[in-house]
């Protein structure tokens, strides 16, 4: 299997060009969020992947040309990011033994001219990642890596101290001298590692440092953070706290976490924007000050060379800056160092996460549950000859698998998580038969439950929100018969709560089928079996087994759970590809 597949970048004919120039204001802001390590952009040919084929070197060139244009127009251009830099791509997660997730990739990422970056929950799952952000990343942002409500406990001079990972807030001036007060807020995430803490946004706004920071009126409050912008999020808490002091000051909010394109206006002097996921989307917001009014616009740009060339009017060598080319070379060098082009096998077809029903032979979920898990886990476990049923959360699979070369990079893309596999033995056939259905009824909190319990939308599985968003696009498309005759390329079709069209390029939506939160392999034809599951869902699985047993047998507890194999989720697809697709 010593095949090497080169990373490549495409700007080919499959990409539809924008037709509307950007609307510039007095302050203009470019936004990224939930990039999850996709520094190289999307590399596959299956539509709509080429829509997102720009790498961050090209993005660097793009922003540099826009900055020059901003100077010519005598306006300000800022760039912000809402967090989740880790988990989702080999460039962050494919680090060698002894390395730290994201450490190398973020050296490239921070070469982009961000004015403010905020922390995401994926910076907090592991202490060593959070510590790396504290020690190595935040200092390089010079006070602009904002973690307003996130602390870390570190040892310094023999003492344990609890400090913000970055800075709580930043006050700075734009190139044209406008005063900005910025915060970086994370939703009340609960799965953070030990020795990191997250204060709820509601408590944060009561802090004296926050009240002091907002006392002086800036020209713009810039709220960047890892929270959805939907009304069920925590943004209104922060917004209202500022509005109580400054009823008229413009507020620009940049959210994330649910991976969707979205825009709302909490009042007429504010706009909230969320800009997608995985380096697919660049958000654009403009604010124009007109006598005592503020006019906002927003746009969702597909991140590719055709978009960049259209909006800068620059092509080929005129477009690519030296810095941009250096960053692209750096991505290639990192990819080589991490051996990300190593080919495990050749996928015989595309396998989709939500584009086909779960029962389809083209479903990656079906492939995972019915083929990948049974084949690889049984092979690698000492209990391989004991009948077993395999259960996983669908959220553990992050992306499609595309026909053709399946590389180490693709393995991290389909699932970056190092979750292990565990089992409980002697589960009866009748209990095992109900586990997946019962989990889907009550396992991870559904949005309805969360809303009714008045918790935040951000604590739901973001995958559920993203999935509903795609579902809405597909249903609307199908309910408008005329739309299906239009000759559009595949892509996102956003409807949000802000005026005018948001998508820079009109598309037709990718077909979408609902996906249950949990999935299982076929039930073996035997009275008792091992129930094998992803460690991430251990608590839910135990609760559900005990609920189904309803006290008829002793409860299963953590003591009954044992490791099933040395394999983790992030390496089962590679093993499968080398066994079946080579
Ligand atoms: N170790 C993990 C971590 C997360 N997941 C899945 O991702 C969901 C969280 O979504 P983010 O966008 O914040 O990543 C979570 O609910 C799980 O579905 C996982 O499987 N394993």
UniProtKB/TrEMBL annotation:
In its UniProt record, which GO terms are filed under biological process?
Answer: nucleotide catabolic process
A single Gene Ontology CC term: cytosol
Q: Does the keyword Transmembrane helix apply?
A: no
Top-rank taxon? Eukaryota
Residues in Calcineurin-like phosphoesterase domain copies: 28-260
Q: Which UniProt keywords apply?
A: Signal
Question: GO molecular function terms here?
Answer: hydrolase activity
Record-annotated Putative 5'-nucleotidase C-terminal domain positions = 350-542
One short Pfam name that applies is: NadN_nucleosid_C
Sorted alphabetically, which PANTHER family does this protein's record hold? 5'-NUCLEOTIDASE-RELATED, ADL392WP
This chain belongs to the protein called Calcineurin-like phosphoesterase domain-containing protein
Tell me which species this is from.
Sphaerobolus stellatus (strain SS14)
């Amino acid at each position: 299997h010593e095949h090497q597949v080169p990373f490549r970048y495409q700007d080919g004919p499959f990409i539809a060009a924008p037709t509307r120039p950007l609307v510039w204001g007095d302050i203009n802001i470019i936004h990224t969020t939930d990039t999850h390590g996709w520094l190289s952009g999307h590399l596959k040919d299956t539509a709509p992947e080429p829509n997102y084929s720009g790498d961050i070197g090209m993005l660097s060139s793009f922003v540099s040309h826009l900055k020059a244009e901003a100077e010519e127009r005598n306006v300000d251009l800022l760039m912000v990011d809402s967090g989740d830099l880790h988990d989702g791509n080999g460039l962050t997660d494919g680090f060698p033994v002894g390395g730290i997730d994201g450490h190398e990739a973020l050296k490239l990422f921070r070469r982009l001219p961000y004015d403010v970056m905020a922390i995401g929950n994926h910076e907090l799952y592991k202490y060593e990642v959070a510590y790396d952000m504290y020690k190595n990343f935040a200092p390089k942002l010079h006070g602009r890596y904002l973690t307003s409500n996130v602390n870390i406990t570190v040892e310094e001079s023999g003492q344990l101290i609890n400090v913000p990972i970055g800075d709580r807030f930043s006050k700075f001036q734009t190139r044209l001298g406008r005063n900005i007060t910025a915060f970086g807020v994370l939703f009340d995430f609960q799965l953070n590692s030990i020795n990191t803490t997250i204060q709820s946004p509601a408590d944060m706004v009561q802090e004296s440092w926050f009240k002091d920071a907002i006392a002086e009126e800036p020209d713009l409050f810039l709220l960047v953070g890892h929270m959805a912008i939907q009304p069920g999020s925590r943004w209104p808490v922060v917004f209202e706290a500022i509005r109580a002091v400054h009823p008229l000051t413009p507020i620009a909010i940049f959210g994330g976490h649910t991976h969707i394109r979205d825009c709302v206006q909490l009042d007429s002097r504010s706009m909230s924007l969320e800009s997608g996921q995985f380096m697919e989307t660049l958000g654009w917001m403009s604010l124009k000050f007109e006598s005592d009014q503020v006019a906002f616009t927003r746009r969702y740009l597909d991140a590719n060379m055709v978009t960049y060339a259209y909006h800068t009017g620059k092509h080929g060598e005129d477009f690519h800056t030296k810095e941009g080319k250096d960053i692209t070379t750096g991505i290639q060098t990192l990819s080589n160092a991490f051996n990300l082009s190593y080919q495990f096998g050749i996928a015989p077809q595309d396998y989709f996460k939500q584009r086909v029903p779960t029962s389809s032979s083209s479903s990656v979920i079906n492939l995972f549950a019915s083929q990948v898990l049974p084949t690889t886990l049984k092979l690698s476990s000492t209990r391989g000859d004991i009948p077993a049923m395999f259960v996983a959360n669908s959220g553990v699979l992050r992306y499609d698998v595309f026909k053709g070369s399946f590389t180490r990079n693709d393995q991290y893309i389909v699932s970056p998580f190092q979750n292990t596999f565990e089992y409980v033995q002697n589960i009866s056939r009748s209990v095992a038969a109900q586990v997946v259905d019962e989990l889907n009824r009550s396992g991870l909190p559904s949005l309805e439950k969360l809303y009714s319990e008045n918790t935040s939308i951000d604590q739901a599985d973001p995958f559920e929100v993203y999935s509903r968003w795609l579902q809405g696009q597909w249903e609307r498309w199908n309910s408008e018969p005329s739309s299906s005759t239009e000759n559009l390329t595949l892509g996102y079709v956003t409807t949000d709560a802000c005026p005018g069209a948001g998508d820079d390029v009109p598309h037709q939506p990718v077909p979408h089928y609902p996906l249950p939160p949990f999935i299982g392999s076929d039930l073996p034809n035997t009275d008792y079996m091992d129930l094998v599951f992803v460690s991430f869902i251990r608590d839910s699985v135990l609760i559900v087994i005990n609920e189904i047993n309803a006290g008829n047998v002793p409860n299963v507890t953590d003591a009954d759970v044992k490791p099933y194999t040395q394999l983790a989720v992030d390496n089962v697809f590679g093993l499968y590809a080398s066994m079946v697709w080579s």
